[in-house]
Amino acid sequence: MPRILIVDDDPEIRETMASLIRRQKMEYDAVSDVADTRRQIQDETYDVVLLDVRLPDGNGLDLLPEIKQLPNAPEVVILTGRGDPDGAELAIQGGVWDYLVKPCSIKQISLSLNRALKYHSQKEKGGDLKALDLSGVVGQGAAIRACFDTVAQAASTDSSLLITGETGAGKELFARTVHANSRRADKPFVVVDCASLTDTLVESTLFGHKKGSFTGAVADRTGLVELADTGVLFLDEVGELPLTIQKALLRVLQERRFRPVGATREVTSDFRLISATNRDLEAMVHAGEFRNDLFYRLKTIPLHIPPLRERKEDIKPLAMHFVNRLCERYGTPLKGVGADFFDVLNAYAWPGNVRELANILEQAFVTADRDKTLYAMHLPPALRIAVTKAQIMTSRTGEEQAPEPEVAASSPVPTTAPAAAPLPDGPLPSFKDFKAEAEAAYLDRLAEETDGDVPLMLDRSGLSRSHLYALLKKYSISV
């Protein structure tokens, strides 16, 4: 029998949903906050979670990564009284089944619930999925684990895959992981470095040529597209492809046929296309720098690799992976790692992402020489200087402190409202504690005055959306 979890702080909504579920002869539990929801999903198994966003002790959307990591994860239907476009985007990106805004009809809720149940049942009947081979892929955080779901999906098909992410984030590693888990795993994986292709040689490189077809063609040459037959053609940095070749490539993708330079007959190639880029192809399309029709051919399955600075929880396991691999390569005993070493690594912004982390760790490994433990002092001075300067500038400018609300010149300052964080009569607290109290008090009042209206809160505070959400989560303030 299907089992539903109702999460809503409004007792009338909970009872309405419970009545709907009872009429359909299904089982249910009902809770009113984030903490109870966490306990329920750990103790019980559910098919669908009806989830409110604004809860007394936090934001319901923060539960999505935890729900999605559950064995046989339930489908999630968002049911919220305050629709927020950005919240809807976050929810859909988090894999929810539906996003409904109150008030909505019982019929609409029932329809969404039953569709989610049908989908969940079909997934269960589909049987166990083949375990992914994630050799070389290191990560434990929710952001990178979400990528694993897309890897599993992409590995089960031959559809075109577009991997996006910053330089050094691991795009080629993920491309090879998809290939290793696909039915073409024992077939060629042919890499095309689009950034190194020149306008004069790109056709010859991709499609091959016949002897004598142009000056310098002293022998027949098989193109990379043909070499990828039965396997994968990986277009690395596809955003660098010249417009002149994009049209020709589009025809190859449509028909899997091409003509080598100087040839009279066409050649076929049954390849699976995987592309990667660190550029915004959609913006390039709008700017006329990339063909719209080619863009949509490439992104049948999109996979975005988050930068390392957005998944700091993966820095430690990645660092240990690279250090252990270095010890194995050089035949040295495994080295320990000091806490201050990770403190510095976590404070750095990592513009070069995982590739930069690997290089930095090798430098530290060489510097440590025979030392049994890696400490912060072994890290390159340039990195330590960058981290120290950033910390000093942050403490000076107070970048993390929320700005005070602006008061119009014509508006009298309320005389009855207390200060955001009055100075205590006794000994002064530390500046860090005082600043935290001031931030929390400011955000509480901001949420109260705007009734939790996020766009209005952004307008009043002058904060960016990401900064506001980070502060609200930091101080467990529900909006």
Automatic annotation (TrEMBL):
GO molecular function annotation: ATP binding
Residue intervals passing through the bilayer: none
UniProt keyword Flavoprotein present: no
Keyword annotations: ATP-binding, Nucleotide-binding, Phosphoprotein, Transcription, Transcription regulation
A Pfam family the protein falls into: Sigma54_activat
Ranges annotated as biased composition (Low complexity): 407-423
Organism: Oceanidesulfovibrio marinus
Name of the protein: Sigma-54-dependent Fis family transcriptional regulator
PROSITE patterns, sorted: RESPONSE_REGULATORY, SIGMA54_INTERACT_1, SIGMA54_INTERACT_3, SIGMA54_INTERACT_4
Modified residues (4-aspartylphosphate): 52
Region described as Disordered: spans on this chain: 394-427
Keyword ATP-binding included in the entry's annotation: yes
Domain Response regulatory: 3-117
Ranges where the Sigma-54 factor interaction domain occurs: 137-366
GO biological process, alphabetically ordered: phosphorelay signal transduction system; regulation of DNA-templated transcription
InterPro entries: AAA+_ATPase, AAA_lid_NorR, CheY-like_superfamily, P-loop_NTPase, Sig_transdc_resp-reg_receiver, Sigma_54_int, Sigma_54_int_dom_ATP-bd_1, Sigma_54_int_dom_CS
